[in-house]
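hiii, so i know i said id send this last week but things got crazy w the move. better late than never?? heres the sequnce for the chain we talked about at the cafe, plus the structure i predicted for it. fair warning i was half asleep when i ran it
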Amino acid sequence: MEKTLKEQPAKQQSMPGLEVDNASLAEENNAGVIKVSHEVVANIVRITILAVPGVVSVGSSGGLREEFVGLFNKRDATPGITVTENERGTYEVTVKVILRYGVELAKVGEEIQNSVREQVTKMTSKKVTKVDVLIDGVRMGDKEEPAAPIPAR
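okay and structure toks below
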């Protein structure tokens, strides 16, 4: 069975916080063409990162206002995931994350890199040569928690 790789145009950004190229990988064999868009790869990346212990969220450090703006104006939304292909045809990924307060930031960042590289390669059969993790903030829990009141003296 002969396989040929071709570049095909992909759909524009459809989820807030995802920034993807206008390209996809198409694999052609005797049965037809299989296309994997960069948007699909970005979704794989997002799901993989959220499964890593110590990760609170992917994307902006943002809050409700930024999420609301992102729904209506994708260009102004803080990009959370960028997927590109280099000249060798391998993926390069950049992600912004918010981590849980108290975790070892470098350790969680390295776990994100390894998990993304492994899962994307497993699901797409394409190598990931680079995963840049930008730690955009830390939080106490899954959502912003109010500060504890200071006891009166």
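btw The first helix runs from residue 38 to 50. thought thatd interest u
miss u guys!!
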